[in-house]
Amino acid sequence: MIKAQNVVKIFPVKSGVVRAVDGVSVDVARGEVVVIIGPSGSGKSTFLRCINGLEDFSEGHIIIDGVDLADRKTNINKVRAEVGMVFQQFNLFPHKTVLENLTLAQCRVRRRGKKEAEERAHMLLRKVGIQEKAHEYPSRLSGGQQQRVAIARALAMDPKIMLFDEPTSALDPEMVGEVLDVMKQLAREGMTMMVVTHEMGFAREVADRVIFMDEGKVVEVGTPEHFFTNPQEERAKLFLKQVL
Amino acid sequence: MVPGRCLVERNSVTGKVAILKATHNTWPWKLLLAVILIGGAAGTWGAVAKIDYQWRWNRVPQYFVYVAEEAQKTPFNGKVSSIVKKNGDAVVTVASGSQRVELTVTADSLKVTENEDIFSGDTVGFAKGWHLGPLMYGLWTTLWISAVSSVFGLIFGLVAGLARVSKNYTIRGLAITYVEFIRGTPLLVQIFIAYFLLGTVFNLSRNVCGVGALSLFVGAYVAEIVRAGIQSISKGQTEAARSLGMTKFQTMWDVILPQAFKRILPPLAGTFISLIKDSSLVSVIAITDLTKSGREIITSTFATFEVWILVAVMYLLVTSLLSQLVFYMERRLAVSD
Question: Which of A62, A137, A161, B135 could be bridged to A69 by S-S, CB 3.0 to 4.6 A?
């Protein structure tokens, strides 16, 4: 489903360059839930953003469902329509109601009619548990509700893959649970997911595989129980000692 | 303890008293404001009274509306078949074969009698009619020139503003050149160049030159406002829209510009209000706008003070109406806050 080969992302800085992502190779199978963890600045978010082309990468290949992002002929908009993304800061459209947030891209990109798009939107809002807020503006919603709308907005495009970039990091602690519950439900339904998070509990419970990144490189890969109970690398051990 | 004082103390924690206190304390300042304004007006009045200026406000109303007598002429040769008098008016019917025409004139200006033979172009009498005076025509010219220039200015500004944030160096460079050139030269000079240089080369009318110069002028300012508005929208909005598969154009049109527009409405309104005032400069290329009408009236009435005061008030009325409209729009757009 996702095949990343030797991805390198270079940022120019004052003193030369920073290799934010430094030769990452990951394969994600259909229906798999992969959680990427690591200290801040480890390149995990940057790598995730490369997967739907929000960042372009300098070297390597990312192949999504057979389409190579490094290929200049690839229509990135088509790829993005298949890859849903949820951001740390929600990024809902503040000038549109919840319902319009969910229908805009359906109408513009998927060319769905208004009625069909709204039906799908209502269905998804029920799924994330906030159907009664359909006609509110995002500013009236709590952080947790906004993030659930953001998930529903991404799902409205019927994506094959969902990417989550620290979806609970900007939330008040009591709202983290409601967002994680929606994500767990998605995972149970067999959605292919890549999640960058600091929620170790979520990683342990839901992940099929945990990837530990540091300084732009994949340091350790393993099943959650293996990674959390018996990490092999020193760097991973140190990290876990600090966060658990 | 005095009951009133007790009330103040009891409520002082709720914050309501602070508001009461605030309103209580503002009236001396309001009074001072009134005194200053009235004093200023009185001072001006006194100074004017000293210089022996003959105020002639009575000469002014005719330049808004006036009653004129218009000669009513028969369009063909014929005979006056009937004259019906009613309420001081006379309806004269002129007939010739199958042709008939009714002319209404005032009874005391009647110049024909019944059954008289008259010829094409003969004056039957005079009719009184209300006409708009030069100040109203001038106002109308100012309004339409401002309106048309605003529309084109908005289009130019939108295009240049978008070009200004383009990734392409050439497009960005063109927009910067345009904005810098316009903002770095006086509007008066631009109008002269538009009329005497471009107007001569391309054989353009003065109205086209005037509107063109104003549109380009306001467009440069709108461009900078649009650029600032677009750049003020967080990058996350673009990322969210693009991550849903929307194209650059859709992202701009559906997500960025509506949010930017709400933010830039106040400075945009200020620019268009300035445009109404700046449009007075087109009078230098002999477009009879409100300012030029005023100048023309002064040459025939010598009512310099009255006319300029009136012209100022008319500009003020138009600009305040626009401010009110924008204020209303801002409140309408604030529903999503």
Answer: A62
Whole-prediction pTM: 0.81
In whole angstroms, give the CA distance from residue A79 to residue A76. Answer: 5
Q: What percent of chain A has pLDDT over 90?
A: 91
Question: Is B332 touching A (CB cutoff 8 A)?
Answer: no
> From A152, which residue of chain B is nearest by alpha-carbon distance?
B244
**Interval A114-140: pLDDT, tens:** 999 999 999 999 999 999 999 999 999
Contacts of A55 (CB under 8 A, 6+ apart): A9, A46, A49
Give the amino acid at B8: V
ipTM of predicted complex: 0.92
Instruction: Report the relative pairing of strands A67-68 and A83-86 from DSSP bridges.
Output: unpaired
In whole angstroms, how large is the CA radius of gyration of chain B?
31
| Spatial CA neighbour of A47 closest among A195, A176, A167 | A195
- What is the helix (H) or strand (E) element at residue A206, kind and residue range? helix A200-206
Residues of chain A with C-beta less than 8 angstroms from the C-beta of B243: 52, 54, 80, 83-85, 154
Q: Can you read off the two tokens belonging to residue B100?
A: 């008939």
CA distances to A102, B55, B324 from B290, rounded to whole Å, are: 51, 21, 22
Residues of chain B neighbouring A52 (CB-CB closer than 8 A): 243
CA–CA distance from A176 to each of A87, A228, B69 (Å)? 14, 21, 83
Tens digits of residue pLDDT in B20-69: 455 567 889 999 999 999 999 999 889 988 988 888 888 888 889 888 88
Model confidence pLDDT, tens digit, residues A134-183: 999 999 999 999 999 999 999 999 999 999 999 999 999 999 999 999 99
B254 CB neighbours in chain A (<8 A) are 104, 108
For B69: left if phi > 0, alpha if psi spans -120 to 50, otherwise beta; the answer is beta
| Dist CA B242 CA B238 (whole Å) | 6
